[in-house]
Backbone:
């Protein structure tokens, strides 16, 4: 059984269909990348997975169960969490409070404290800035905070939407290193990225998306050598 | 004669402040004087030639004569007046060239004197309340401020400006040196003195001002409540009057001994019921609109405010709540044989309610729920996506926010003794929202200040009551431009409520440098 599976999912904004039947899966422990150009439907796919949008037809299965009708916040309780595009930190709250918001559904105080230590161990910068308002952090730090906040939910599946967007190349390196770290600690990751080279270097498997359809899939290494992918996404 | 050139002096000052370089200031002084002369001359010629008595009843021939200094020919008066305008312009410009400290001090002195003159009647009343005889005669003669008193008041401002910073410095130096135990005692003593002052206040200021304070308190209750929805959770609720009306009508229906008498229950019995009813209404109204955001929410809630007023007016409910006749004979609260009859008595009930709400809301503000509201305010979608049950948390905000409105309404009904549908207009919602915006969203101290400024001051300046909304408009614009966070923005306190856990990676968390914001 796959941890996450999409079966022929279609989704639409009003009358405009954005996903024309997506089928994909993510297995426990994997890093899977979803690459594609602007407007291909990558973010819509993620939004549909988290139930921020409902599929018009098809089904999203998390841990073997259909997620239709499950509230967005309930999915977090089931172990699926998203790191939103453009970070989406709570600007007027402190770093500490942002992290705390991630632990909203948890009652185990000790566990929360342990995870807080784990997050500050992974991102020492956050540990240094615990008391600062999140809005005053740099872009890279905000991305780390968004990731840390998501980890505070103790997810089984972490959905990441364009973590490299708007960051300097040095920071992109750092962020991808952190993603690899998180994966090594046992969290499954579905990574949506425009930066195909980086995404393919990191992932086990990947899907290529174009205008609402998946056009290619396979192991990341194979895709990185695929002439079509090189031509379209790797600037070859 | 002293009054008229004052705007001219102000104009000279304004022109000067805009001067990019203070060195060329004197040229600007000249320009300001000339501008003043030209404008005044034109104005005098204008009112001499055209009768403007239709528009301004005070523009009498006597005033024109006064302005032209009693000269028959306007031209002669113009000359004299020009000299005065010139001098005034020079004074104003001179002010601008002064160091800011002295300029501000002079402004404060002028403000105090003008304020005393404007509020002469009120000050006299208060004085007569406290002291025997006619102490007000010492300050005022024939309703006008005595020059000597004005001079003393101005001198007092100068002394105050000189002393206060020194006292503050000494306190600031001394306080941290005291032991923690002693510090706590000092802060307790200060708070105790504050509460004591509040307790004797109604008897110091008399019946009229107690009435004003009671109204301020009622609006403060509503502002504190609405602040939960608007300030903390970011939900723009324009129908807050709904809760106020529910509280008031429930109190009215259940306690009155008039035509709508039901059970003539006791005030204290009905008070919690009113609060619960308002909360229930808040919950009911939250259900349909909870998924709306921003402007849509504001419009929908505004509709509720109107619906409740129309319901109160309707024939359908009039057997129960009196329709446009309202509810009469609502008794004042009482404890045993003692009845809270006068504004001074009622002040205490409102004071107690305000203090309780202040404590409750302060706790909520610091709680985890308070932070969830703030998370929703900052980004609702993300809050939901990381696992916060936004629907429930928003419903909670609406419900708790309604409680304070119901409480205010219930006290309002009992205080007035009669309630009518027109007391529950959209304007109440607007006023409360204005308080929050002017005071500072999410800031409890801001609510207190905002209520005093927006409700208290207009009550005192009754003569200008028609211009109340003009004042609101000007204040809202000024706040939006110069202090977008409100007069007293929410403090950065939220950033330092919890100790930062030590990161496992070895880098110690910085504690002293981080607490900025």
Residues:
């Amino acid at each position: 059984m796959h941890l996450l599976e999409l079966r022929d999912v279609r989704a639409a904004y009003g009358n405009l269909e954005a996903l024309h039947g997506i089928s994909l899966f993510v297995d426990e422990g994997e890093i899977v990348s979803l690459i594609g150009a602007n407007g291909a439907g990558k973010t819509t796919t993620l939004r549909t997975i988290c139930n921020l949008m409902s599929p018009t037809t098809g089904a999203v299965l998390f841990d073997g169960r259909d997620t239709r009708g499950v509230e967005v916040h309930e999915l977090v309780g089931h172990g699926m969490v998203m790191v939103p595009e453009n970070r989406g930190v709570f600007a007027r709250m402190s770093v500490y409070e942002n992290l705390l918001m991630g632990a909203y559904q948890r009652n185990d105080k000790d566990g929360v404290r342990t995870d807080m230590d784990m997050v500050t161990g992974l991102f020492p910068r956050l540990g240094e800035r615990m008391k600062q308002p999140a809005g005053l952090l740099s872009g890279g730090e905000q991305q780390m905070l968004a990731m840390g906040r998501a980890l505070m939910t103790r997810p089984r599946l972490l959905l990441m939407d364009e973590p490299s967007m708007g960051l300097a190349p040095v920071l992109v390196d750092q962020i991808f290193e952190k993603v690899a770290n998180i994966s090594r600690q046992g969290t499954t990751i579905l990574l949506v990225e425009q930066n195909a080279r980086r995404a393919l270097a990191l992932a086990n498997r990947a899907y290529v998306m174009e205008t609402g359809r998946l056009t290619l899939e396979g192991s990341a290494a194979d895709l990185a050598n695929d002439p079509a992918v090189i031509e379209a996404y790797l600037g070859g | 004669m002293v009054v008229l050139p004052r705007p001219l002096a102000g104009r000279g000052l304004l022109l000067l402040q805009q001067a990019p370089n203070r060195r060329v200031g004197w040229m600007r002084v000249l320009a300001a004087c000339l501008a003043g002369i030209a404008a005044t001359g034109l104005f005098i010629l204008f009112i001499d030639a055209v009768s403007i008595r239709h528009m301004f009843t005070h523009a009498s021939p006597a005033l024109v004569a006064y302005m032209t200094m009693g000269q028959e020919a306007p031209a002669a008066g113009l000359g004299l007046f020009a000299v005065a305008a010139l001098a005034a312009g020079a004074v104003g410009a001179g002010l601008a060239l002064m160091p800011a400290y002295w300029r501000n001090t002079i402004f404060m002195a002028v403000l105090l004197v003008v304020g005393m003159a404007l509020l002469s009647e009120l000050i006299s009343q208060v004085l007569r309340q406290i002291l025997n005889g006619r102490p007000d005669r010492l300050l005022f003669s024939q309703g006008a401020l005595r020059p000597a008193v004005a001079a003393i008041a101005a001198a007092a401002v100068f002394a105050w400006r000189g002393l206060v910073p020194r006292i503050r410095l000494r306190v600031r130096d001394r306080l941290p040196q005291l032991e923690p135990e002693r510090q706590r005692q000092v802060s307790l003593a200060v708070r105790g003195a504050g509460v004591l002052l509040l307790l004797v206040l109604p008897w110091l200021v008399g019946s009229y001002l107690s009435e004003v304070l009671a109204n301020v308190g009622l609006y403060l209750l509503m502002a504190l409540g609405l602040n939960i929805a608007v300030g903390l959770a970011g939900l723009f609720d324009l129908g807050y009057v709904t809760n106020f009306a529910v509280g008031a009508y429930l109190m009215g229906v259940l306690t009155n001994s008039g035509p709508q008498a039901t059970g003539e229950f006791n005030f204290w019995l009905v008070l919690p019921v009113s609060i619960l009813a308002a909360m229930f209404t808040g919950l009911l109204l939250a259900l349909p609109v909870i998924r709306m955001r921003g402007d849509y929410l504001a419009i929908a809630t505004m509709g509720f405010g109107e619906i409740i007023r129309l319901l109160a007016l309707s024939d359908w409910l009039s057997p129960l709540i009196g329709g446009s006749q309202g509810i009469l004979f609502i008794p004042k609260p009482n404890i045993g044989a003692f009845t809270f009859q006068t504004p001074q008595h009622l002040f205490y009930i409102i004071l107690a309610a305000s203090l309780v709400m202040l404590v409750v809301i302060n706790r909520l503000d610091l709680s985890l729920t308070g932070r969830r509201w703030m998370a929703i305010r900052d980004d609702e979608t993300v809050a939901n996506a990381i696992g916060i049950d936004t629907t429930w948390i928003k419903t909670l905000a609406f419900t708790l926010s309604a409680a304070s409105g119901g409480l205010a309404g219930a006290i309002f009904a009992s205080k007035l003794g009669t309630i009518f549908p027109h007391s529950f207009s959209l304007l109440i919602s607007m006023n409360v929202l204005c308080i929050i915006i002017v005071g500072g969203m999410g800031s409890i101290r801001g609510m207190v200040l905002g209520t005093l400024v927006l409700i208290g001051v207009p009550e005192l300046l009754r003569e200008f009551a028609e211009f109340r909304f003009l004042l609101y408009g000007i204040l809202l614009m000024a706040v939006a431009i110069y202090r977008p966070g409100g007069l007293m923005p929410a403090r950065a306190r939220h950033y330092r409520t919890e100790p930062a856990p030590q990161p496992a990676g070895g880098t110690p968390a910085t504690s002293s440098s981080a607490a900025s914001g």
